[in-house]
Amino acid sequence: MNSGGDNLPPLRDVIRKHKLAARKSLGQNFLLDLNLTDRIARSAGDLSACDVLEIGPGPGGLTRSLLALGARKVVAIERDERCLAALAQIEACYPGKLDVIAGDALKFDPRPHLCPPVKIIANLPYNIATPLLIGWLQTKMWPPWFVQITAMFQREVAQRITARPGEKPYGRLSVMAGWRMQAKILFDVNPGAFTPPPKVTSSIVQFTPRARPLPCRAQALEKITAAAFGQRRKMLRSSLKSIFSDAQTTLQSAGIDPTHRAEQLEIADFCNLANRL
User: Fold this and answer.
1) What integer pLDDT is reported at residue 10 of this predicted model?
2) What is the C-alpha separation between 191 and 35, in angstroms, rounded?
3) How confident is the model at residue 22 (pLDDT cuts 50, 70, 90)?
4) Which CATH class is domain 218-274?
5) Is residue 34 a contact partner of residue 123, using CB atoms and an 8 Å limit?
6) Range(s) for CATH 1.10.8.100 in the chain?
7) In this model, does residue 49 exceed pLDDT 90?
8) pLDDT tens-digit profile of 167-179?
9) Cα torsion for 76, 80, 84, 87, to the nearest 10°?
10) Does domain 3-209 have CATH number 3.40.50.150?
11) Which residues on neighbouring strands pair with residue 189, listed in sequence order?
């Protein structure tokens, strides 16, 4: 089913009518191809029995697809007040199915507005994508309040999220994401699909929370990975000096070669070190 069947005007007309030139300061790149937004929505599976959280809907291309493909309810958080009138049109077309909240997703807690199970599906604004993801990964209660995330990132960030030990993009984000989630890149989205076209390719990444991640405190893991990857060319005995008074002994007692570098460690090794803080 294509979301163009909802009798709403074409997105280009909506953008023209409401003068929605994308703002770089808000990380905006509007996705206008409804076949592509349908593909993103479909990749998240059956939406009829869950609420969907969408961040940065803009003129509402993905919002339309989520609703047309049967989402029980969509809660959309939009910081740009210029987009609210366009989103109100969609709200009128799907009574009781769309809640639009004007606000900053980094400061707003959406949980009171959502009924489980919840899926997060979003074309994330580039400038807040990583901080949002880190916030979701650091959720205190686990399993978390969402059952799945399907979101767009710059391809370079997507590669860092899904990288394995020994691979060049492997870093802090790989460890933090891999610790609590199973993440995979579903497909790429070319710059030409956006208005205006960004300078980079984007990727849709899907995350499924691990039922039982290795026991570890998120803040401790964040601290260890920041130190280890902050000086990634150094051996761990040097890069972790600022964390442990005797890094060499701590590493040896954890069964880790002190001459290894950060990209050689498995996620379990980082969790082991974090638990020694």
Assistant:
1) 81
2) 15
3) low
4) mainly alpha
5) no
6) 218-274
7) yes
8) 999 999 999 999 9
9) -50
10) yes
11) 202
